[in-house]
Amino acid sequence: MQRQSSKLFTKVLIVGGGLMGAGIAQVIAESGVQVVLVDQSEAQLERAKQQIEKMYNRRHPEIDVQSVIKNITFTTNMEAGKKCLLAIEAVPEKMEIKKEVFRSLSELLPDNAIIASNTSSLSIAAMSSVTKKPENVVGMHFFSPVPIMKLLEIIKGINTSNETVEKVREFGELIGKEVIIAKDFPGFTVNRALVPMLNEAAFLVMEGNDPAEIDKGMMLGANHPIGPLKLIDSLGVDVLLFTAESLYEGFNDSKYRPCPLLKRMVEAGHLGKKTGKGFYNY
Ligand code: NAI
Fold first, then answer.
1. pTM for this structure?
2. Domain total for the chain?
3. What local confidence, expressed as pLDDT, does residue 8 receive?
4. Do both 31 and 98 map to the same domain?
5. Minimum-distance ligand 1 atom for the alpha carbon of 93
6. Rounded to an integer, what distance in angstroms lies between the CA atom of residue 155 and that of residue 12?
7. Nearest to 193 by CA among 260, 244, 152, 157
8. Enzyme catalytic residues
9. Which residue range is the domain that position 235 belongs to?
10. Which one of 39, 118, 173, 188 is separated from 154 by 20 to 30 angstroms, measured CA to CA?
11. Ligand 1 surroundings by CB, under 6 angstroms
12. Residue 50 CA to ligand 1 centre (angstroms)
């Protein structure tokens, strides 16, 4: 299932081979572009390969997954991607780790290379500040699972040039994504609108409402394909709390106050589907 190859970038460096990095590597490799997937852990690279094989075989059982895997170099050595003109960072959501990676990429890559972050909440401006060419730094926020979710949210930081945005938009479309452009403020577009709604649904539960009733209400009354509490359970209660906290702190505004019930659930280990218990039991 090869899509049209990108003439813009013939080889893309991805740093961080976790859930997101592996997914991003897969969609880019599926479009016929070479990928260098870097992780600090060999074991993680093996897991990344298995994730790609499983995901691809499920969606394209008739095609040999090797047609995709052959486009990906799995390595712990970032030098392997030193000629790439696009790098996408997908390391853990911690500013110190991201800045360290951005510093190294800025030293390693050609001057005209674009460095993108898959962050879901951190400032693109802050990451750009440690690079030699802040105008070439941009957000490319993919959604999980990357091979299935259509959206790519591109974030234009204060330093990001229009040319950089246009290049990554074109590339995003070439790898089969629908693109939206967002400003660099906490939550960007999707999480800014979604997270307060999910947080409010948690407040409804805290006030004694039944999760199943709330979900039914939002599905039938607001035409949502999935109820907010089911969605929180599948995203992870801890992930929602983290994003809600970053909106609250990022805007210094009490309207984003995270629901205390979310905090209690995280403390109790009720993280949703992944632990077998959240707003529902699994
Ligand atoms: P993850 O924890 O699954 O993967 C992170 C990977 O980075 C790990 O494999 C780790 O070994 C590697 N790593 C850490 N430091 C490194 C370094 N210096 N060099 C190379 N590799 C390094 O995390 P996940 O879920 O893939 O998230 C990555 C980024 O994507 C985060 O910024 C997150 O906020 C964002 N994101 C996550 C979504 C999700 O649903 N999980 C959705 C959208 C964005």
1. 0.94
2. 2
3. 84
4. yes
5. 32
6. 19
7. 244
8. 120, 141, 153, 191
9. 192-268
10. 39
11. 15-21, 38-41, 44, 90-93, 97, 101, 118-120, 143-144
12. 16
